[in-house]
Write a structure and sequence with these properties.
Length: 504
């Protein structure tokens, strides 16, 4: 999961992009990058680490211009060099293009082969974002008439990208001397929103992964980029848009609402906070119907994402709500850390239980989801050590049984606690006295209630139904084999391994 920004403004955009990345820091803490455009010159700075660590005053001074894009990246397994894969990426032909991408291409290996053999383009990293950039560059070149690029050519190039690329992608890019381009895959799996600001000097536009960046930066939320749509804003702030995909259908990733997005964001017309409140209501309904025998004294959330669900659950059941865990805000998200050993070590550093809220009580712990189970097991143990008499565990999401291949780092079935296990086996594994999972239908209803116009969501990590239609069991097997090979440290052959496994 990553966060992206694109800005066309009437004053220097360096500070605006930096502040916007800070607001999207929750979407990626491994690397950050900014590129600004000054005339036909790009200024770039990127590197590994948090936004505050990557950029210094001298870096910011060099990022001149009234237009720019930015990116924050989270770590993925098998990434040998985070700095080399930090975004945005740059290619100098045609025109000069920089691109930042949130999502994952499921046919990246096949595209890489095509780029080498047919398009005569070179990919220098393991990042599918660089593949996407080169596909876009080739399509721009193929659709340019008499070396003259116009908006129609740009939209035709995006249509070519949609025909060739599979998977999830929300993209911001700049074409040197022309303007800012943004587009979203035909299923709208990853979020992308547009903001507008009226100034004395003219209109400004901001495109971002989440609306929180738009609101906090003083812009007004205009709308979401539609699935398959491309938006182009030139250096004079002229705004153009066009549907560039056939049979586009909005099926956003439901895990954005469960876990990733900030609660103060609105994505595809859905308030993330309101959706989490409704998740708590649905979970309360299930407890009333199936677990009324549990003698619950207190409801305690696992900070931070589950707080709205836990609060609403407690309210509906008439139970006491308490904060029982104190979170160290200087430890990154354990779910997206690259190694199990790192995760195990960081959970105890990240959370501390307050014995006064646990001692002698039957506690219901509420979390947003259970993925690998590492955190859940340790939290249950922490509650017991703090004096809890019984520990019940509730998840606002259903069991995660399948890999998410659209940009979330949960790629192997073997790493998912729920794969191949019953609810009772999972309960024993995490050490809880009772385990309550949200039902998938209830989760979908909870989120859809906030925007009834959305007919479907990508729920592949819960039910194994992948909306792009190209993810097969054989594909998942190859992906898992690749991950296992990478974890053994064979980084010297990982590029060739990637091509062999995924194009076999």
């Amino acid at each position: 999961m990553c966060g992206i920004l694109g800005v066309v403004a009437t004053s220097p955009v360096n500070q605006l992009l930096y502040d916007g990345l800070q607001l999207l820091q929750h979407r990626g803490q491994d690397a950050a990058g900014i590129v600004t455009s000054e005339g036909r010159t790009f200024h770039m700075h990127k590197g590994s680490g948090m936004v505050r660590d990557v950029f210094r005053t001298r870096n910011m001074r060099e990022l001149e211009g009234l237009m720019g894009i930015a990116h924050v990246r989270y770590p993925t397994a098998g990434c040998a060099d985070s700095s080399a894969e930090a975004q945005p990426f740059y290619v100098n032909s045609p025109y000069g293009i920089v691109l930042a991408h949130n999502g994952n291409l499921t046919n990246a290996a096949e595209l890489t082969q095509d780029l080498y053999r047919q398009d005569l383009r070179h990919v220098n990293t393991h990042s599918d974002s660089e593949v996407l950039l080169n596909v876009l560059a080739h399509e721009l070149q193929a659709n340019t008439v008499n070396h003259k690029l116009d908006v129609a050519n740009i939209f035709a190039a995006v249509a070519g990208v949609h025909r060739r690329c599979r998977g999830a992608y929300a993209v911001v890019a700049m074409i040197s001397g022309y303007g800012l381009l943004a587009f979203r895959d035909p299923f709208g799996i990853r979020p992308l929103v547009i903001g507008r600001n009226e100034t004395e000097k003219g209109v400004e536009y901001l495109i971002a992964s989440e609306s929180v960046s738009i609101d906090a930066m003083g812009f007004k939320l205009l709308r979401d980029v539609a699935p398959g749509e491309a938006v182009f804003i030139d250096d004079q702030s002229n705004f153009y848009s066009q549907q560039c995909a056939q049979d586009a259908k909005l099926t956003p990733c439901i895990f954005e609402y469960v876990y990733f997005a900030r609660p103060d964001s609105v994505i595809d017309g859905i308030s993330v906070y309101a959706s989490r409140l409704r998740m708590g209501e649905r979970l309360a309904d299930k407890i009333q119907q199936q677990y009324a025998h549990l003698e619950i004294d207190v409801v305690i959330p696992i900070p931070d994402t589950s707080r709205p669900s836990a609060l609403q659950l407690a309210n509906k059941l008439g139970l006491t709500y308490r904060e029982g865990f104190i979170k160290n805000r200087y430890i990154g998200r354990t779910f997206i850390m690259p190694g199990q050993g790192v995760r195990r070590k960081s959970v105890r550093q990240k959370l501390n239980a307050m014995a006064v809220e646990f001692k002698g009580k039957n506690v219901l712990l509420v979390d947003d989801s259970i993925v690998r189970g590492t955190t859940s097991k340790q939290i249950v143990q922490m509650a017991r050590e703090a004096g809890a008499r019984k520990v019940f565990f509730a998840s606002a999401a259903p069991p995660v049984r399948f890999p998410n291949v659209y940009g979330i780092d949960m790629p192997t079935r073997a790493e998912l606690l729920a794969t191949g296990r019953t609810d009772e086996q999972i309960r024993r594994e995490i050490g809880a006295d009772a385990l309550i999972y949200q039902d998938l239908d209830a989760l979908i209803d909870a989120v859809r209630e906030c925007n009834p116009e959305i007919q479907a969501f990508d729920t592949s990590c819960f039910n194994g139904q992948y909306v792009t239609g190209d993810v097969t069991p054989a594909y998942l097997d190859r992906l898992e084999n690749q991950r296992e090979s990478e974890s053994e440290g064979d980084s010297g052959t990982s590029r060739q391994l990637d091509l062999n496994l995924r194009s076999a």
